[in-house]
């Protein structure tokens, strides 16, 4: 039960990151590495402000705005300077490492006994606090995103992801829409980072490493569960995907895997998930071929039978 | 020249791979005035410059030299997005003209706002617009009026091309560009879409440039015909003369103008039936 609850609490925070990654990954069709810099950026802002006794909600908001600024930088590099998307992310990510160190002043900030966004629910256990705040935030984010993508601007943004040429021909400012998505995406990712720091009780300079792999795994688990969904329902499956992912991790740790080996496991699991469409295809093809071989065997048997008949008649 | 010109092109030159040995002078000093309500068909062999001309007008290709004026406004240095306010376009590939994962209604809503500001504070596909979209779809006679919420990528190429045409007229453009928009369709669907094109152009009184590979179609539709060859306009007929034009006439005109015999191969390709 404890494991389930803590997986849900962790999964809710990760799902905010996964939703952010989903925006660039599925709407713009870009795997944006900025995520791995924006996540610790949100954590760095939130942790250093909270350590200085700032309002935790304000600190979290600043973290999110920082992420949006990082998204703006990547978006500008990608759309205005036409730097390929993968390199854009790596450039911003690398630059952010120094910026995050500057913000934190050191590699690690502890948040023991500080007031965090979870403190409002202090009468509940730590896990329950995170679940309450996480669920509230996820609900608000989902409602806002669904609303946004149904506005004129949101519709234009979705069209840009689908068909930039057609969008431009209909007067959509393609680059601006791409930048908007970049900013929304990295804002959410930094928000997840800010919450994670408060939930874990510390911010660390290296906490972003491997996070995009976790987010992508959550997205793909959601997509494997149910295929072809509308945007709002898709966000729901991502949340479920993130929780399932945390359960898998909890199971792996319970089985006695060394936490130091976890990232290797993350990479392996995502590889398997990404290979699933190929595997599904192979299974389909080999089934079809097996059935066809039986079909051909029947045809052969019939032909042989007829030939024999002819031979008998000739006699 | 009348003064109700919609499109004026002055000494338009386009080069590909300029400064290399592969340099091509794709458009060689095109001068063209299209007046209000003209339906111009454009023919020419491969590499004649038809698509280059259309891309230059739409803004897809930056202009190397010359001037493009649309409805009295110099748009030479405007990009595709800026020109979208006045120009609507249907591409050759049905996939190009619509956003595949969006529904029919969403695609139409986007097109209905062509060239306008996309507000954060207005609904993208307002419920109130649906009757209008349904009404428009009914004109296609393809039974699409009940499929407003279907993902457009699930429709056939012909259906999508018909919708793209309709989308181009939801917000009446100053100029409609059709770039071999039936070339990727089977002959029967192609004929249907062409018929629909003609109907829409007539009803909405749209100034139109239509590229086609098919000489018959070029003669049958429109009230002016241009033939391009090696980046130049070599034939330009309109009115009476255009009405009585036949394919042999056209070939003779071409041969006279370009002073080179069109080969049988080209003729076969051009007739393409």
TrEMBL record, chain A:
Please state where this protein is localized: Cell membrane
- Is Membrane a UniProt keyword of this protein? yes
| Segments traversing the membrane | 12-28, 57-78, 85-103, 130-149, 179-199, 205-226, 235-257, 263-280
**Cellular compartments per GO CC:** plasma membrane
Q: Name one Pfam family in it.
A: BPD_transp_2
Q: What is its main location?
A: membrane
Q: Mind listing the GO molecular function terms for this protein?
A: transmembrane transporter activity
Any idea which UniProt keywords this protein has?
Answer: Cell membrane, Membrane, Transmembrane, Transmembrane helix
| CDD domains linked to this entry | TM_PBP1_branched-chain-AA_like
Q: Which domain of life is it from?
A: Bacteria
Name the InterPro entries for this protein: ABC_transp_permease
Q: How does it sit in the membrane?
A: Multi-pass membrane protein
Q: Tell me the PANTHER family matching this sequence.
A: ABC TRANSPORTER PERMEASE PROTEIN YPHD-RELATED-RELATED (PTHR32196), BRANCHED-CHAIN AMINO ACID TRANSPORT SYSTEM, PERMEASE PROTEIN (PTHR32196:SF69)
Question: What is the name of the protein in this document?
Answer: ABC transporter permease protein
Automatic annotation (TrEMBL), chain B:
Q: Where are the transmembrane segments?
A: none
SUPFAM superfamilies in the cross-refs: P-loop containing nucleoside triphosphate hydrolases (SSF52540)
One GO molecular-function annotation for this sequence? ATP binding
The segment(s) forming the ABC transporter domain are: 7-255
Quote the subcellular location field of this record.
Cell membrane
Name the predominant localization. membrane
Query: What protein is this chain from?
Result: ABC transporter domain-containing protein
């Amino acid at each position: 039960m404890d494991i389930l609850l803590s997986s849900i609490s962790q999964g809710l925070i990760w799902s905010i990151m996964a939703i952010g990654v989903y925006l660039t990954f599925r709407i713009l069709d870009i795997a944006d590495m900025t995520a791995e810099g924006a996540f610790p950026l949100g954590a760095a802002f939130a942790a250093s402000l909270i350590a200085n006794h700032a309002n935790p909600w304000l600190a979290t908001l600043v973290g999110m705005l920082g992420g949006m600024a990082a998204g703006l930088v990547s978006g500008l590099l990608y759309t205005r300077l036409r730097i390929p998307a993968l390199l854009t992310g790596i450039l911003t990510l690398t630059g952010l490492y120094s910026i995050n160190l500057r913000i934190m002043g050191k590699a690690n900030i502890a948040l023991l006994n500080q007031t965090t966004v979870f403190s409002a629910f202090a009468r509940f256990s730590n896990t329950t606090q995170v679940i309450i705040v996480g669920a509230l935030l996820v609900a608000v984010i989902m409602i806002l995103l669904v609303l946004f993508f149904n506005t004129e601007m949101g519709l234009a943004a979705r069209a840009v992801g689908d068909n930039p040429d057609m969008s431009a021909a209909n007067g959509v400012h393609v680059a601006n829409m791409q930048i908007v998505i970049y900013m929304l995406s990295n804002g959410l990712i930094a928000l997840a980072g800010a919450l994670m720091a408060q939930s874990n009780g510390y911010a660390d300079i290296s906490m972003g490493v491997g996070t995009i792999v976790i987010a992508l795994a959550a997205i793909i688990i959601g997509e494997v569960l149910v295929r072809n969904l509308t945007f709002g329902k898709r966000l729901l499956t991502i949340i479920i995907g993130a929780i399932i992912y945390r359960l898998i991790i909890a199971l792996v740790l319970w089985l006695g895997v060394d936490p130091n080996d976890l990232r290797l496991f993350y990479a392996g699991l995502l590889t398997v998930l990404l290979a699933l469409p190929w595997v599904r295809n192979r299974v389909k093809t080999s089934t079809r071929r097996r059935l066809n071989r039986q079909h051909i065997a029947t045809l052969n048997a019939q032909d042989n039978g007829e030939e024999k008949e002819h031979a008998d008649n000739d006699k | 020249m009348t003064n109700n010109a919609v499109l004026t092109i002055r000494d338009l030159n386009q080069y590909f791979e300029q400064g290399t040995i592969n340099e091509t002078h794709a458009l060689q000093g095109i001068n063209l005035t299209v007046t209000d309500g003209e339906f111009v068909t454009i023919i020419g062999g491969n590499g004649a410059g038809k698509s280059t001309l259309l891309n230059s007008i739409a803004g897809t290709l930056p202009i190397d030299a010359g001037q493009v004026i649309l409805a009295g406004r110099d748009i030479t240095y405007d990009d595709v997005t800026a020109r979208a306010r006045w120009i609507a376009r249907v591409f050759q590939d049905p996939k190009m003209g619509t956003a595949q994962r969006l529904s029919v209604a969403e695609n139409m809503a986007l097109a209905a706002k062509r060239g306008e500001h996309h507000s954060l504070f207005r609904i993208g596909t307002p419920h109130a617009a649906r009757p209008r979209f349904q009404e428009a779809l009914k004109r296609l006679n393809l039974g699409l009026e009940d499929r407003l919420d279907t993902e457009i990528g699930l429709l056939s190429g012909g259906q999508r091309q018909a919708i793209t045409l309709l989308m181009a007229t939801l917000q009446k453009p100053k100029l409609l560009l059709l770039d071999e928009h039936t070339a990727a369709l089977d002959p029967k669907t192609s004929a249907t879409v062409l018929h629909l094109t003609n109907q829409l152009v007539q009803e909405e009184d749209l100034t139109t440039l239509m590229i086609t590979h098919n000489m018959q179609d070029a003669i049958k539709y429109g009230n002016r015909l241009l033939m391009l060859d090696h980046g130049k306009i070599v034939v330009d007929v309109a009115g009476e003369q255009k009405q009585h034009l036949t394919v042999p006439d056209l070939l003779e005109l071409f041969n006279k103008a370009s002073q080179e015999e069109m080969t049988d191969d080209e003729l076969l390709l051009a007739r393409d039936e």
